[in-house]
Amino acid sequence: MCGITGWIDWNKDLTTQADTIEKMTETLELRGxxxxxxxxSRHCAFGHRRLSVMDPANGxxxxxxxxxxxxxxxxxxxxxxELYNAPELRKELQDLGYRFRTTCDTEVLLLxxxxxxxxxxxxxxxxxxxxxxxTHEEKLFMARDRLGVKPLFYRREEGRLLxxxxxxxxxxxxxxxxxxxxxxxxxxxxxxPARTPGHGIxxxxxxxxxxxxxxYDRAGMRIFAYWQLQSADHEEEVxxxxxxxxxxxxxxxxxxxxxxxxxxTLLSGGLDSSALTALAVDYYxxxxxxxxxxxxxxxxxxxxxxHAHDFQPNSDAPWIxxxxxxxxxxxxxxxxxxxxxxxxxxxxxxxxxTPGMADIDxxxxxxxxxxxxxxxxxxxGEAADEIFGGYxxxxxxxxLKAETFPWSLATGLRASLLSPELREKIHPxxxxxxxxxxxxxxxxxxxxxxxxxxxxxxxxxxxxxxxxPTLLDRKDKMSMAVGLEVRVPFCDxxxxxxxxxxxxxxxxxxxxxxxxxxxxxxxxxPDDVLYRKKSPYPKTHNPNYLTAVRARLLERLxxxxxxxxxxxxxxxxxxxxxxxxxxxxxxxxxxxxSGPQLFAYLLQMDFWLRQYKVKIVL
Length: 618
Fold this sequence. Notes:
The chain is α/β, with parallel strands linked by helices. The protein is built from 24 helices and 19 strands. The relative contact order is 0.12.
């Protein structure tokens, strides 16, 4: 994995702008701590930071190869990602006469573009964001993977386009101001920590949507989709469907275990992570690769403060022990205490360039930092709940009928936190309703579906296209901030395409959430783990955390220079802080973000406004 950035400019000679492209590239050092490179021509400048995973000795970027059929012209690539079907593509290209200088997938991708042009993206199985400059046509081509695992932001102005893996790379350009407008504030306060697809938060920043390509030349810019969910009838019975799911998942895990550097799995003892770990162990045994290393996260004294509820029915510790003993993995338990979590709130903002999921982000950042000491690549279970319907809101009537995003039901509370002036500017309820309507209008319904199937297809679409990107972005930013590559097998597009069209009554086979996935994994996991009730990524239950973030936030609000003051309803926040149930009200976002996370989110907002010197343009 890596960090990429670039600058196309029709009005400047970029060969004189080496310092600027180097500064833009340097902001991505943490994503790629192993090497750096830049490439400049008159109208294009590329920068790359490398995290070496495949063929560490070779594969330096930007990578240049001759264009097909055009003498003395090249194609130049910067690439962040991993191709899991690189061996097949390499063989196909070799059969066409291509000769390779490296064993890395970077060269496979570049030569695939040389041969097939923009249609190459349809052949790729992997996670990627890349940019290619064709010197003979003076044309930029960029693409992002189907599910949006790897990020790609851009900003277009008259005669100029800037891009980067993270906003910080674009912000490093001396002519780009750190500004946010009313729509960006609506994203942060109304939609956040989720984000509308394609929205870049910062003023005039956009993100290339998953499954999309961008072409930019002197004639202008064109964006088009090369992949989207397609609805079709599902013909197989339950047993056939389960077998197909198992085959696809096993093949995906095996492809994603290929690495020239140490690899591990994240293990919570839940269905998803246990399944991936079990499949990894089976593959390692067959290939005589030794024991799999596993990592888990928890918090000091969390067992003393844990209280079961619908969103988090039990703690992970006993289940982790069960699986590590069952699979004989080399396990590394990781624990954090309250002061570390609070301190890492700021590191999480710096990693993401915006406020995020508060201590949920902070703990993941710390967790990844510990993993990086032992491994460079990790396998993680993100996306299974979105794809197979595991979240509580898939199964709750109030969420299914809410006519809003089911992970953000506390719309009244969120609106009440805003100052009257900001409410007047962004119209929070209307903004949310518009974004929800936009999402629902995109759902590719299947003709003849009854109301139940139609409703569940809509719920699945919202989760795959609106909630899942939030978790994928979180995982990418927190892991890459410490130079750790995280792979997510449940995001394999073949699996997603197949499961998308499985009827709800089959997905819930056995009347359980993710019943089909459980059936597909029979014999892979012990029954008690196989049928364990879903429990999400753990958060701290220590009351000291609430006490600390609440006190810090109130202290900030007492400061007349606090940049939050014009944006929030301080009286309402103080009222919530004084309430005896400040830690126990229903989540205002997702499954885990309740009172303590609300205060921490506002602390992150305050830090972000100060640290980035954000100018608000209303």
